[in-house]
Amino acid sequence: MKAIIVEDEVLAQEELSYLIKAHSSIQIEATFDDGLDVLKYLQTREVDVIFLDISIPSLDGVLLAQNISKFAHKPYIVFITAYKEHAAEAFEIEAFDYILKPYHESRIVTMLQKLESHFKRDKQEQTQSTPSTGRVSHSINLIKDERIIVTDINDIYYAAAQEKVTQVFTRKEEFTMPMNISELCTRLPEEYFFRCHRSYCVNLSKIREIVPWFNNTYILRLSDLDFEVPVSRSKVKEFRRLMRF
Prior knowledge:
Elements: E1 2-6, H1 10-23, E2 27-32, H2 35-42, E3 49-52, H3 61-68, E4 76-81, H4 87-92, E5 97-100, H5 105-128, E6 139-144, E7 147-152, E8 156-162, E9 165-170, E10 174-177, H6 181-186, E11 193-197, E12 200-203, E13 207-212, E14 218-222, E15 228-231, H7 236-243
Parallel strand pairs: 1-2, 1-3, 3-4, 4-5
Antiparallel strand pairs: 6-7, 8-9, 8-12, 9-10, 11-12, 13-14, 14-15
């Protein structure tokens, strides 16, 4: 992987460079302390990941990332910053991670391991995919405690609408997403997830039992969770088709 570091504090830049070299095979191609210089650099070069501070001269990190997210070749973006209030904006541009300063070395190591793993898997999928089959994303960015958590889609059991936000549930954790459930569903692969109700989306592979309910509807009991997800009457026909019964 090729990377650049965008950080205007020399000591912070040197520390991050050291940790990346010590704990990964990522190659640092260049370092920058100015946002506009980064855009100029990327006009003629491509990188796989950008480690990005938010408080930088000329063009702050959020605006820089918003510009980069429109590129045909979209590098992973890892924010490393002292400003926790920009986590929601980072999620909107699908940043890979959002790390708050001061950080522990272990936090960087974990991020680097995930980053290399995702890069390797994405490369394999790009090699195997064809124009007719397309490519299925196997992870989604979820928000918890102002952190972005890269989550395998197979770990998600169901999602539930809560007014203007959506709660996403894994076996052990709950995440609050700043979007309605319709928008969340567009980010989940339809091969695995089904909008079974106006307020619920379920991972079909997590269904343990399908229980007949009133008005010819169903209640879904999920593996490992003590919660029942309803199937609305308008979704019954499609659900039966998907589950082949």
